[in-house]
Amino acid sequence: MEQLLQNIIFPQSSELEGDYKLFYLGGRSIYEMEQKKLHLADSTVTDFCSYMNSFSLIKWKEYTAVGSVRLTLGLSGRGQVELVGYHLNVHSPVRRTFGLYDFDFTDKKELEIPFPENEEMVIGFEIRAISHVTVYGGAWYGTYDPKQKKDVILSVATTTMKKEDFITRNMASLKREILDADDDMKEHFYIHVVDNGRTLDAEAMSSWHLTVHPNKNTGGSGGYARGMIEAMEQDPPATHVLLMDDDVTIQPESIRRTYQLLSFLRDEYKDSFISGAMLLYEEMRLQYEDVGAIRDACTLTTLKGIFDMTEKRNLLRNEEEACGYGHRYAGWWYCCIPTHMIREKGLPLPLFIRFDDVEFGLRCKPKFVTMNGICIWHMGFAGKYNLAMDRYQMCRNPLVVDAVGSMPGTVNAPDYVRKAFRSELLKFNYNAAELILRAFKDFLRGPEFFQIDQGEEIIKENVQKNEKYQPMNGWPDIEVNFDEILEDFDRKPLETFWYRLTFNGQRLWPFRAPKRGMIPVFFSDVYQPGRYVGHDAMLAVNVDNRTAVERHMDKNKYRSLKKEWDQAYRYYRRNRASIVKSYRDAQPYLVSVEFWKKYLEI
After folding, report:
1. How many beta carbons lie within 10 A of that of residue 433, not counting itself?
2. Beta bridge partners of 280
3. How confident is the model at residue 273 (pLDDT cuts 50, 70, 90)?
4. CB atoms within 10 A of CB 508
5. What is the rounded CA–CA span in Å between residue 49 and residue 97?
6. What is the per-residue DSSP string for 446-487?
7. Nearest to 284 by CA among 52, 53, 458, 118
8. Partners of 377 in the beta sheet?
């Protein structure tokens, strides 16, 4: 049997037209968005072996048992189609040609081209326009044994919180391009919008295979848990649930490709998560992450680094298997999960927000399926540092993940939190230290604390601790080099001794800061002891939006927080075994449908 696997697509928004090289390479052509027609000028060569339109032969062969491949193109005009393939020679792309096909069509006509058998990583095509050429689209087809096709019911679960513009636009796109289209997939496709803000008109927005669920504001973990439950209990039950952020830009074609992959996935990948890449909304050609990992230092990292996906070398490197860290997870901006894994491993932990996707990936330990063209665009995280999130949620939640047993044994979450608290005191960021202390003490309350719906209330309280940044022109006498603000200074041995002995001048009176005065420092959780040493004031600078806030030494505040921390940490060390046991005993209930239905009041 022959199956359509990928459509040839063009930018479906003005934002994406600015980065048209994700779709085709060469000079920018005129695209009629409503008619979906791309006009190529005569005497030009346009390369469609791009991020969105190349065919990842290496991945389709790895994940499915695809046989021969065929390309179809809707064309008019006179020109040539050249079949090409690429592989990497160490780090350099190597191009290979597979044939040249002439066409001369007065009106729109379909050109069908069988692709020769080959072992290239990625295959694609180029169009040489001899006259004006119009491209009406096209598709990649693959052949399979009919027995390989699986019955797939795919449900999207997206959680939104007062982001009506994004969610209505995305749902309208999916409805228009899939549910209302002449597409066999639509009978097997459902959408569940979990509205944590309860601001959407559920009755008006809901339609065939699209349901809006007003939900308590239980954060991302509660919203996705609700979406998972709805997907598993719909009629017919979903075989896979695709978790997707609300504030993203998506091409419906990514979901089509996900569905086709699932329909022919090899048995050894039946437990796998399909992890869609996150590309940056601010710079749409840049891929931020497709699979993430947790380092031994309890920090999160992307496995591949940031790639410019308009470069052929990165197109190929992205299709290589990432090596290195084994403790991996998929971000829930686009993550497709088999529902049998949810039934076996459970729902998310009730962490409200942050680290829930990390914990779920670490708990399930799946293989990860990735592919060029399966992606979303999301706002990047630069400049979004937020004490309420990054110092409370991102310290409390790893402690819970560690206690329930999902954290890798090489990761020491309590030590990470202890060092985070210490670093904030040393940089005089007492509000941040206070939030870390609260996170630690709330963790010590045990699993019963997380069975109470109070996540929204905690966030509102913690937001009051966020620093109030002001435009940089408020400090005309302080010179700030924005290009070097991330660099630390070297410390002399005596400075290091004094810094450690006095906790940067905050203890052992009458020791005083020898340098005094205000020093510019980087604003987030970056630790720069060489800058801090000897100063009694700091100017924390946000280089992304050119704002800053002052921090001043307060010995009384230091003593109060340090005393409270020491008491809590001593309690933890004495009772660690019983605390961990309480979390591990409670974990099966905390991820159960029974718990979540009670918690969500459904």
Report:
1. 27
2. 378
3. very high
4. 10
5. 12
6. -GGGGGS--HHHHHHHHHTTS---EEGGG-TTS---TTTTTP
7. 52
8. 249, 279
